[in-house]
């Protein structure tokens, strides 16, 4: 028996916002296997795994999606982030750089690339990426000042104001 999935998705998203992940998963599991393959449900499952810091599980969903839907910027950003969180930062950088050309218009692309370059011991490349990020969205500067991945660039970030 199939149910109207929109209320289920909305309920699950509400639970995610409240940090009630078990309840969100209960909503997802109300759906049939076929319904769980719908794009909105797949995106919800990815978000749930990432919120719970289940990087491997999120990546298992994201990796094939990057192949099947190569124009979805967010899949590459999320897959790269999962890899980075799994201490696979070089792979994260490579995954991010393999995404669609449209990624370069997003400040998050440049920000994450800067984080990865910094962790890989390439602070000069990281600074270039951060400058591009800040040109697109200056609000990332405050985030960068608090980011552990960018701590070695903190004095540069402060003096670059």
The secondary-structure element order is: HHHHHHHHHH
Rough outline: elongated
Topology, number of strands: 0
- Ends: how far apart? 59 Å
Helix content: 55-70%
Return Rg in Å.
18 Å
Q: Any low-confidence stretches, pLDDT <50, length ≥5? A: none
The proportion of strand residues reads under 5%
Q: Largest beta sheet, briefly?
A: none
Oligomer: single chain
Average the pLDDT over all residues and give the rounded result: 95
Structural class: mainly alpha
Number of helices: 10
Describe the structure.
The protein has 161 residues and is mainly alpha-helical. Helices cover 68% and strands 0% of the residues. The chain has ten helices and no strands. Helix 4 packs antiparallel against helix 5 (73-85) and helix 5 packs antiparallel against helix 6. The longest helix has 14 residues, at 55-68. The radius of gyration is 18 Å and the shape is elongated. The termini are far apart. The model has no long low-confidence stretch (mean pLDDT 95).
Describe how the helices and strands are arranged.
Elements: H1 5-17, H2 21-28, H3 39-51, H4 55-68, H5 73-85, H6 89-97, H7 107-119, H8 123-136, H9 140-146, H10 154-159
Helix pairs in contact: 1-2, 1-3, 2-3, 3-4, 4-5, 5-6, 6-7, 7-8
